[in-house]
Amino acid sequence: MPKKTIGLMGCGTIGTPLAMAIDSGRVANASLSGLFDIVDENARDLKTKLKSTPQVYHNFDQFADSTADIIIEAASQQAVKNFAKRIIESGKDVMVMSVGALADTLFLAELLQLTPIRNGHSKIYVPSGAIAGIDAIRSVRHIANSISLTTKKSPKALAGAPFFTTRNVSLDNITKVTEIYEGPAVEAVKLFPANVNVAAVLSLAGIGVEKTMVRILADPEATTNQHEIVATGSFGEIKISVNNVTAPGNPKTSFLAVLSAIECLRSICEDGIRIGS
Hints:
Elements lengths: L3 E6 L5 H9 L6 E7 L3 H9 L6 E3 L2 H5 L5 E4 L3 H13 L3 E4 L8 H14 L5 E2 L8 H7 L3 E10 L1 H4 L19 E7 H7 L5 H9 L7 E6 L6 E9 L2 E9 L1 E2 L2 E5 H15 L8
Parallel strand pairs: 1-2, 1-4, 2-3, 4-5, 5-6, 7-9
Antiparallel strand pairs: 7-10, 8-9, 10-11, 12-13
Helix pairs in contact: 1-10, 4-5, 8-9
């Protein structure tokens, strides 16, 4: 298989280990060609940690027009909104880590409309992130009656979410497991953009952002990020539980999200058997 060149947008918690994995050869047939971050220093710092010498781009348009075959977004939902169309228009594939941006169905429709019209081959890749069992959810999506996600994190992992700007909730005063939010995924990904991208992944695989229900719990004793999926329908019931170690330096992100991105990239770049997709 020809080698794929990779451009990385976002050089922080997720982007850094992704770059290190590519740089170390953990993903065969892949090479890192470019780095971009709106905080220019982040990209420069990451480059110093690598054996390879990807170009640091200071201008996004130059980055989008670079020689990369695939651009990985590892920045934010807003970055997806700002830059994904331009990436597709440049004829490149894009891997989206901040999947909550795709919960905006109008925006997603615009992206999907661009992929065949602009170049006939651009693809949008979505890793499974910090949850498991996505293939099972996809297999029952047309006969599922309900799909729900319950996420439990420590209060510090939820701090800074837009939800708290309009709610009278003090995370510092939580002393026991407390329900913070219950409602549809379409609202959850807006109110907790750095916490429940998994809700968007689940919705895309399943019954959509309006019908997928989300509960978010704050647990002061939690040392991991926990996600439980329950799906019911004529097929029976599916229960999936994941207890994730957090990514180094960022309690908002699960380490599994990083690993799933590496595996998604490996499935794109490497030959061999593909299981489940």
